[in-house]
Amino acid sequence: MRAFPSSSAAHDLLTFINASPTPFHVVESAKQRLVNAGFQQIKERDSWEASCNPGGKYFLTRNTSTLVAFAVGKKWQCGNPISMIAAHTDSPVLRIKPVSKKQVDGFIQVGVETYGGGLWHTWFDRDLSIAGRVMIRNAAGGYEQKLVKINRPILRIPTLAIHLDRQETFSFNKETQLFPIAGLVAAELNRTGGEDDPATRVVLETSTLSPDPDSFASLKAANERHHPHIVEIIAKEAGVEPSSVIDFEMILFDTQRACIGGLNEELIFSARLDNLGMSFCSIMGLINSLASPSALEGEHCIRLVGLFDHEEIGSTTAQGADSNLLPAIVRRLSLIGSSNNKDTAYEQTLSTSFLISADMAHSVNPNYSGKYEPDHKPEMNKGTVIKINANARYATNAPGIVLLQEVACREKVPLQLFVVRNDSSCGGTIGPILAAALGARTIDVGNPQLSMHSIRETGGVYDVEYAIRLFEGFFAHFGQLEDNILVD
Among 315, 359, 291, 305, which Cα is nearest to 60's? Predict the structure, then answer.
């Protein structure tokens, strides 16, 4: 009988996912783990000449939704290699519109827009809430950001009863039929002391604040653009008065918590496995590779993890993988230490570095087996998947497979291979984007899952530990392997 690894890593992943409904929260959850592991926060805007040294562990953020963490080997020299893993922090969601206040047929509704390519029909009839970041005016007159996560269901997108529309294929208009209900007009009027008649419904249409008549407002106040009660709930969670809320970026999330399922508790039922599954495994692989006090003693490389926002919408933003962030960081890191080759250190570092693009993969679906290439059907709990595409939708090539296979053999973790059918479309990752920007050797991998981009996805319990061990081994062994597997 084959022995499975422990399920403790999967339970830790559930904690990570349940705390992280937005990219802002993902970065905060990762930061907490890094700080507990002895990492020091630095800033892009500062000089690193005195702060980043061999033997140190550091992280930085951009927009609070993208994070890069790295540890510098004590034998690092200018121009040496960097072992890198890149994942993404975002998932397809519904985001509250800048002006979201709606009121139709006695219902309070919230205007939302789609983010990414979600399976939007799975969002109907779910117990939804909101989370994100809010910009507030503080007592000193400045502005600051606070993270907000409302833990109770306050929204729901209702389906139409089958008796009123017997369509065989469920279809809907995303602009007119995907708006959640937040409550009843009558209940809100009762809460605010109004009455349910046209003369008093103005309570729901105007701000409850009394702005200074002499002040100029370039935009309407938050509780004029959004339902005042929603602004009040956000303000309470942020610990401020509603009048202090200037703006916010809020998304909807399913309040049902991630959990372990299956007859033998071998499955994970969760939102946002794509791609919090790989974000978590990447961070934990880095942290675990540094668990020994002597982990960096003989290390001549830098170990780095990047968690990028906006992969689901193309990555071409300031905090996306197609930004200058990773190239700029690698350039600065390549110059750490004294050397006579600083003019070419960046290029030397890139030519010997290696990047793992970690994004969840497709498990075979038994109800749609014909959609998969017959000889490439990844299964859950049988290891991380190497993703290959002849048209470079993935960045994997043979030298990369050889390197990762060697790491997996040393760590005794299984791997799987995946290609799409010739008559099927293929998804994309940040792997080709970063490979083109850096020129570094790159491979695309991910743990297998079902129902990708659904509000509720399914993964394998034991694949979590497999991936963490694989990534930990990559960081631990890359310094020894990079000289042996080099193709110019």
Answer: 305
d(CA 14, CA 270): 8
pLDDT per residue as tens digits for the range 219-258: 999 999 999 999 999 999 999 999 999 999 999 999 999 9
State the SS3 of 11-59: HHHHHHHHCCCCHHHHHHHHHHHHHHCCCEECCCCCCCCCCCCCCCEEE
Radius of gyration of the chain (CA): 25
CA distances from residue 249 to 44, 132, 224, 317 in whole angstroms, order as listed: 23, 6, 16, 16
Here the tokens at position 428 are: 């994309």
Q: What's residue 67's pLDDT? A: 98
Query: In the β-sheet with 267-270, what is the strand arrangement from edge to edge?
Result: 259-261, 267-270, 457-460, 448-450, 361-362
Select from 357, 327, 407, 388 the least CA-distant residue to 84.
357
Q: At 203, is the pLDDT very low, low, confident or very high (cuts 50, 70, 90)?
A: very low
Show contacts of 420-424: CB within 8 Å, 24+ apart: 420/373, 420/389, 421/371, 421/372, 421/373, 424/371
| Confidence check: pLDDT of 3 > 90 | no
Kindly state the tokens that stand for 21.
């409904």
**pLDDT beyond 60 at 201:** no
Helix spans in 89-211 (H):
185-192
CA 169 to CA 121: how far, in whole Å?
Answer: 11
C-beta atoms surrounding 131 within 10 Å: 22
pLDDT of 323 > 70? The answer is yes
Question: Distance between CA 260 and CA 461 in Å, rounded?
Answer: 8
How many degrees, rounded to 5, is the angle at CA 358 between CA 336 and CA 314? Answer: 95
pTM greater than 0.90 (yes/no): yes
432 and 388 Cβ atoms separated by less than 8 Å: no
How many residues can be counted in the chain?
A: 488
Q: Which of 208-212, 242-246, 334-338, 468-472 has the lowest mean pLDDT?
A: 208-212
Whole-angstrom distance, CA of residue 485 vs CA of residue 467? 22
DSSP 8-class letter at 338:
-
Q: Return the SS3 of 8.
A: helix
150-185 residues labelled b (16+ CB within 10 A) or e (exposed) = beeebbebeeeeeeeeeeeeeebeeeeebbbbbbeb
Hey, what are 247's tokens?
Answer: 């703006």
pLDDT at 200: 42
d(C-alpha 430, C-alpha 115), whole Å: 17
Phi and psi dihedrals of 294, rounded to 5?
-100, 10
For residue 355, give the nearest of 318, 310, 394 by alpha carbon: 394
Taking 70 as the threshold, does the pLDDT of residue 207 lie above it? Answer: no
Identify the band that residue 396 occupies on the pLDDT scale cut at 50, 70 and 90: very high
